[in-house]
Design a protein that fits this description.
Chain B: This is 4Fe-4S dicluster domain-containing protein. Chain B: It holds the Pfam family FeS. Chain B: Keywords: 4Fe-4S, Iron, Iron-sulfur, Metal-binding. Chain B: It comes from Anaerorhabdus furcosa. The complex is a heterodimer of chains A (141) and B (384). With 141 residues, chain A is α+β, with helices and mostly antiparallel strands. Chain A has a single domain, classed as Histidine kinase-like ATPase, C-terminal domain (Heat Shock Protein 90). Chain A has five helices and five strands; from the N terminus they run βααββαααββ. In chain B, helix 4 packs across helix 9 and helix 14 packs across helix 15. Chain B starts with a helix and ends with a helix. The chains are: A alpha+beta (141), B alpha/beta (384). Chains A and B meet through helix 1 and helix 2 of A and helix 14 of B.
């Protein structure tokens, strides 16, 4: 049975609302009362992925599901343009962020690397038609 | 009165109204005092100790924080203030600006040792409680330094051990500090015996002003530590004031966006402790006074060993003993109830949001019929 199943939409270049979805996800998990250390990892990963969608992709959807066995899955789906070189994108410090994004303090090139580092499960599928990032956490006490 | 101003003002949804009476859920309350500020009818009040308590002790000491001193511009006036407080019946009046200076310095030293951890300074009880209630993932970032008044009280206790029954009174500039002394949390061996609300004793102090002087030297660093604009800033330190801004900063810290800062000093009140709600002065004027006072002769910051200022637990360790499984089951139950509620968060049931009402229903304390909108719909359906 699913305890949480939430869908959010993220708009392209919507810097004003950057982080709102992560805030909501965090708030929901906080309401359940999951341990602080895990909550922090989820928050960091979700925020990074959400920002990636805004600055690199053309927006997209975020799905957050939590099964009653404690499997938390965050799925980030975007319609493009895809990541040309996934190995490079996973290298810390490598960034293709636009000048505008960098001026706003984003695009340090740590995003995907950080997400992979903090998550229990990490999967990324990319093509010019879009990227699907799936990250998983195991919620235990 | 059914204005529900307090219900709306509470940032942690700790206030609820049942049978026309306002209740506070103490596990959620962070003592910020927003409900008291919002209350138009003086229905809600926070009472400090009274001066009558002085007679219960053989030897009494009054602790004066820097924020109280800030109401006076010149050093002479501060000396008059200390004498005026002494006339209330105290044997000793103690200025703690040197200790305030030391804890500020000590927090910076700690953050230099633990670089990259974004430590949060622990001198405001509201911030500590806020993190516990709303930002639990930052609990490990709070510095393990005690409140200045507590450190001072411990020193007084040691020094006056031969003076019989010693009573330590703390003048409080805000509701949080008042409540901290009345209902200590976390730090179980609380040394301050009584908390006095500064507004309560102000009329008597005013009458006593100008009757004499008590020599005082003030510590510049301590005076400056009660206002965010005057704190000495290094590039890796962040200082913020105002409740919303502070919440915003804590949220950023949770997302790991503030890793470049080693120390976060946060004040929930505008203008820091000078904006405490039990002070009578305008915090911008008092800030100016502090500037003037800093020019006077200086006392060096105190030099207490670290174990004296170390506060083992400044926060409650309320362990939620339920397992994750139980938490998930409860959360599902709450969500099921929430779907049946209207979701307007109207507050007519006495709870600040439909989610809290759903929690009450899930634990069996309330029923769905206690929701006025739901009940109205049922009645309308029946009449059709």
């Amino acid at each position: 049975m699913q305890v949480i199943n939430q869908q959010f939409i993220v708009e392209r270049d919507d810097y004003a609302n950057a982080g709102k979805v992560s805030s909501q996800v965090k708030q929901t998990l906080n309401q359940i009362g999951i341990p602080g250390e895990l909550l922090r990892r989820v928050a960091v990963a979700c925020y990074e992925a959400e920002i990636n969608m805004i600055i690199h992709a053309w927006g997209g959807t975020i799905q957050c599901t939590l099964e009653d066995n404690g499997e938390l899955t965050l799925t980030f789906k975007d319609p493009g343009p895809g990541i040309p070189n996934i190995d490079k994108a996973l290298t810390p410090g490598w960034s293709t962020a636009s000048e505008k994004a960098r001026q706003l303090g984003f695009g340090a090139g740590m995003g995907l690397f950080n997400i992979k580092r903090v998550s229990d499960h990490f999967d990324i599928q990319t093509s010019p038609q879009g990227t699907t990032l799936t990250i998983g956490f195991l919620v235990t006490s | 009165m059914k204005c529900m101003k307090c219900l709306r003002a509470c940032p942690t949804n700790a206030v609820f109204i049942q049978k026309d009476r306002v209740h506070i859920n103490h596990s959620k309350c962070i003592n910020c005092g927003k409900c008291l500020d919002a209350c138009l009818n003086q229905g809600l009040q926070s009472k400090g100790s009274t001066l009558v308590d002085i007679s219960n002790y053989d030897y009494t000491v009054c602790i004066v924080p820097s924020s109280m001193i800030s109401d006076y511009k010149t050093h002479e006036q501060v000396e008059e203030l200390f004498y005026a407080i002494k006339l209330l019946g105290f044997d000793e009046v103690i200025d703690i600006s040197d200790i305030e200076g030391q804890v500020t310095k000590e927090a910076i030293l700690l953050s230099d040792i633990e670089r990259g951890k974004s430590l949060i300074s622990s001198f405001c009880p509201v911030i500590n409680k806020l993190i516990e209630v709303k930002f639990p993932m930052l609990l490990s970032s709070i510095t393990a330094i005690d409140y200045p008044s507590e450190i001072a009280a411990r020193q007084i206790r040691k020094r006056c051990s031969d003076k019989g029954k010693v009573g330590i009174f703390n003048c409080c500039e805000c509701i949080a500090k008042l409540n901290l002394a009345k209902y200590p949390y976390g730090n179980h061996q609380f040394e301050v015996d009584h908390a006095l609300a500064i507004v309560d004793i102000f009329p008597i102090i005013k009458a006593n002003m100008g009757k004499g002087k008590l020599p005082v030297t003030l510590c510049k660093e301590g005076l400056q530590s009660c206002n965010p604009a005057m704190m000495m800033l290094a590039e890796n330190h962040l200082v913020a004031d105002g409740f919303d801004k502070v919440c915003n900063i804590l949220e950023h810290a949770e997302f790991g966006l503030l890793n470049e800062f080693d120390l976060l000093t946060l004040f929930p009140c505008f203008n820091g402790c000078l904006g405490g709600n039990l002070l009578w002065g305008n915090s911008y004027l008092t800030k100016n006074n502090i500037h003037q006072l800093c020019k006077a002769k200086e006392k060096p910051i105190s030099d207490l060993p670290f174990e004296e200022i170390y506060g083992e637990s400044t926060i409650d360790n309320v362990n939620d003993m339920r397992s994750i499984q139980e938490k998930l089951v409860f959360f599902s139950k709450v969500n099921q109830q929430l779907e049946k509620l209207p979701g307007f968060d109207c507050g007519a049931c006495g709870f600040a949001s439909c989610r809290i009402m759903a929690e009450e229903i899930a634990t069996g304390k309330k029923t769905l019929e206690d929701c006025r909108i739901h009940r109205n719909e049922v009645i309308q359906d029946e009449s059709k």
